[in-house]
Amino acid sequence: MKSILNYKITTMTLPALLLFFASCGSTTVEQDPEGAIQVRVMETELTGIDNELELTGVVQPFEEAHIGASMPMRIESILVDVGDRVSKGQLLVQMDRSQLFQARVQRETLRADLQRLDTLLQMGAVTQQNYDQMKAQYDIAVSNIENLERTTEIRATIPGVITGRYNSDGEIFSMTPGPAGKPAIVTVMQVRPVKIIIGVSESDYLNVEPGQEVDVVSDVFPGRTFAGKVYKIHPTIDRMSGTFKVEVLVSNEDMSLKPGMFTRVSLNLGRHEGLLVPALAVLKQAGSNERFVFVVEEGKAIRKTVLPGRNFDERVEILDGLRAGETLVTTGQHNLLHQAEVEVIN
What we know:
Layout: H1 2-25, E1 37-43, E2 46-67, E3 73-78, E4 85-86, E5 91-95, H2 98-123, H3 128-152, E6 153-155, E7 160-165, E8 172-173, E9 186-201, E10 213-217, E11 226-233, E12 243-250, E13 262-278, E14 283-284, E15 291-297, E16 300-312, E17 315-320, E18 327-331, E19 342-344
Parallel strand pairs: 1-19
Antiparallel strand pairs: 1-18, 2-9, 2-13, 3-5, 3-8, 4-7, 5-6, 7-9, 9-12, 10-11, 10-13, 11-12, 13-17, 14-15, 15-16, 16-17
Helix pairs in contact: 2-3
């Protein structure tokens, strides 16, 4: 009799226990059927937004030249050192001039021979062909000297600052890549002006134009702003980052900005109308990057997935998923489920 009673109790309580454990394992918050959740709301509206981008970039030289000889030869003397400012065309390196001296002696010999043939030609003692052959040899000698002068006198191709010196006097320049990654004796960087390359979102491609003014700041110079302008817009989009490159030019008259410095670039692309909502009204779906908000429609909370844009202090721009004129829940949204009944309070 006792076992039968125990069996009946077990069979009666098992469904209740299963229901109890099932309810304990559920993470869903049930809506109270007897009362609506109180929320505060605001009506969304379009507002004027300054489309000002703040992007980071690294200072780079406007131009960079790795300068060396056009053929292997001995370095006679290097006339500059790291940190020296140079002008375009300035002599930087004097290479070995032995061949140049020999070529000049040969040219003078050919010049004298040519003058004698010219006299004999006037007298009719030699033919025009003899004279023309000697003249060709002389012209070749002159051209060879001009080439050797360019080869032995290494001059700056751009104005700037010497940022690398890779050899010493008397060494052989072998034309093999050195520390600069290229065959070079010295490196010159043009740092007046400098350029900063920034990555701008492809959505702003049509809003960026050459000549647009920008502000540049660096932590190295607190409180100082450098004026710049958009110099060049690259014509392709990087599919990995969804951005295109923009080159910003800064005059850098006092050469304060140095290549390699990190900077922040502010680029104003004008004003546009957009939806700005309190940042706290936008929720994030756990375990994903989905963002959503709740709006009130006919006394019920409606969940909407949105695409947020840039932050403006305590507000965020909504690019998609929300329209002007909707009633957005700003307080109490953390307790809501889709289609939950709500009561709007002041």
